[in-house]
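Progress note, sequence design subtask.
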C-alpha cells in the first residue's frame, strides 16, 4: 500500500516544498514593494481565498474525471504562476500571481482523495499521516532553503520554487497513476453546483462529520493567525531575519515529520484517532499562548516544537475521522469542501491576525489564536461524540446502504443541499 502511495506523496512533497520556500521571505519580499503589515497578511489571505473557491471544484472534477488530470493541471499552473510572482515588479502584481498560485495549489483535497482511494478505512489515518509527513518534509526543507537562498535576493527562492513545480509536473506526468476506483468502487458521480453556499452548509450539517469540519475550520483560523503574523513579529519585535525565520520553521517541520511520519500511526493503534484530537488541540493552545513571550533562540524553538507536536497529532486525526465518517460517493466532495472551509479559515485568520498586529498589540494575534483554540478544545468533545454516534449508525446499516451513502445517517449531499 505504501509503495502505491509513493507517486502521490512525491507530488505532495514537491508541491509543499515549493510552497514552503516562500513562507519565511514573503513578509520581507512584500515589504520590498512597500507593503504594510496588514497588506502582508492580505497577500496571504488572497492566496487562501483562491483556494476557497477552487478546492471543492478540484475535488468534484477529480470525482468525475480522475485524480491524475487534476493534479497534473494544478501542478503545471503552479509553475507558471510562481514564475510570474518571482518576476513581478509592482505590489499589485504580487497580489495577482499570489492569487492565481493559490487557485492552482488548491489540490491537496485531490491528493487526500487519492490517498482515500488507495487505503482501506483501517489504514486511512496512516495514509493521511503520510501526506502530513510529505507536508512536513516539504515544510522542513522549504523554509530553510527559502531563508538561506534569500541572502542572494528575496526573488531567488521563488524562482527555485517555480523550477521545482516544473520538475513536479514532469515527474507526475510519468509516475502518477490514476487512483480513482482502485478499491473496486464505481466512478463517483459529478458534484453539481460545487460553489453553491448551500453545499457548504450541507457538509456542516452532515450527521457524522459536520461538527468535525466545523472544528477544523475553527482551529485553522487560529493557526493561520499565528502563521501569517509570526514573521512580522519575528522581524519587528525580535529583530530576526529571513534565514533565522526559515530555520525556526524548519525545526517545526522536522518535528512534524517525526510525529506524522511514524508516531501518529502508533498512537492511533493504541488510542484511536478520536482521543488524539483534544490532546493535539490542548498542546496547540498552550504553545500559541507561550510563543510571544518566548525569547529566541532556545525558548522560542522549544515552543515551536510544542506547536508542531500539537499540529502533527490533531490534523491527521481530524482528517482521518472526516474521511472514515463519509461514504465512498461523498469522499472527493466532502474532503474538497473541508479543504475549502480550511481555506476560508486561512482568509479570516491572516486578516484578523494582521488587524490585531497592526492596531492592538504585536502579541495579540498569538493570544487571540490561543483563545480560539481553547474554544476548539472544548468544542472537540461534542464533535467527537457526534462522530462516534454517527459511525456506529453507519456501520449498523446494510452494506449496500452504507456504501452508497443513502442510509439514514448519511443522506446524499446533493439531497441535503437542494
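Output:
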Amino acid at each position: 500500500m505504501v509503495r502505491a502511495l509513493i507517486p502521490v506523496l512525491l507530488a505532495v512533497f514537491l508541491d509543499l516544498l515549493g510552497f514552503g520556500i516562500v513562507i519565511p521571505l514573503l513578509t520581507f519580499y512584500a515589504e520590498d514593494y512597500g507593503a504594510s503589515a496588514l497588506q502582508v497578511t492580505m497577500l496571504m489571505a488572497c492566496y487562501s481565498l483562491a483556494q476557497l473557491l477552487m478546492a471543492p471544484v478540484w475535488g468534484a472534477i477529480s470525482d468525475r474525471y480522475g485524480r491524475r488530470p487534476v493534479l497534473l493541471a494544478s501542478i503545471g499552473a503552479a509553475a507558471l504562476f510562481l514564475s510570474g510572482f518571482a518576476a513581478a515588479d509592482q505590489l499589485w502584481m504580487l497580489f495577482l500571481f499570489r492569487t492565481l498560485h493559490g487557485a492552482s495549489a488548491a489540490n491537496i483535497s485531490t491528493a487526500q482523495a487519492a490517498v482515500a482511494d488507495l487505503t482501506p478505512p483501517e489504514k486511512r489515518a496512516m495514509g493521511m499521516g503520510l501526506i502530513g509527513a510529505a507536508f512536513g518534509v516539504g515544510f522542513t526543507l522549504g523554509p530553510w532553503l527559502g531563508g538561506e537562498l534569500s541572502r542572494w535576493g528575496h526573488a531567488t527562492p521563488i524562482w527555485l520554487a517555480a523550477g521545482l513545480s516544473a520538475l513536479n509536473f514532469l515527474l507526475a506526468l510519468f509516475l502518477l497513476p490514476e487512483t480513482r476506483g482502485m478499491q473496486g468502487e464505481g466512478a463517483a458521480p459529478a458534484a453539481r453546483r460545487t460553489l453553491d453556499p448551500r453545499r457548504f452548509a450541507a457538509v456542516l450539517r452532515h450527521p457524522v462529520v459536520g461538527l468535525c469540519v466545523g472544528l477544523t475550520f475553527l482551529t485553522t483560523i487560529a493557526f493561520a493567525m499565528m502563521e501569517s503574523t509570526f514573521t512580522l513579529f519575528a522581524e519587528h519585535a525580535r529583530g530576526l531575519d529571513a534565514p533565522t525565520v526559515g530555520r525556526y520553521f524548519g525545526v517545526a517541520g522536522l518535528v512534524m515529520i517525526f510525529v506524522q511520519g511514524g508516531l501518529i500511526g502508533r498512537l492511533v493503534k493504541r488510542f484511536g484517532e478520536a482521543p488524539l484530537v483534544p490532546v493535539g488541540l490542548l498542546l496547540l493552545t498552550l504553545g500559541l499562548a507561550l510563543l510571544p513571550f518566548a525569547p529566541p533562540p532556545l525558548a522560542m524553538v522549544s515552543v515551536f516544537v510544542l506547536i508542531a507536536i500539537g499540529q502533527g497529532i490533531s490534523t491527521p486525526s481530524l482528517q482521518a475521522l472526516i474521511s472514515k465518517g463519509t461514504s465512498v460517493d461523498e469522499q472527493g466532495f466532502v474532503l474538497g469542501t473541508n479543504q475549502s472551509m480550511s481555506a476560508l479559515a486561512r482568509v479570516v485568520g491572516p486578516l484578523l491576525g494582521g488587524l490585531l498586529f497592526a492596531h492592538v498589540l504585536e502579541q495579540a494575534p498569538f493570544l487571540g489564536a490561543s483563545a480560539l483554540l481553547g474554544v476548539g478544545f472544548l468544542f472537540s468533545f461534542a464533535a467527537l461524540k457526534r462522530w462516534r454516534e454517527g459511525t456506529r449508525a453507519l456501520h449498523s446499516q446494510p452494506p449496500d446502504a452504507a456504501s452508497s451513502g443513502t442510509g439514514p445517517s448519511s443522506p446524499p449531499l446533493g439531497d441535503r443541499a437542494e
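Residues 2-176+198-417 form a domain with the Growth Hormone; Chain: A; fold (CATH 1.20.1250.20). Work on this subtask will continue into the next period as scheduled.
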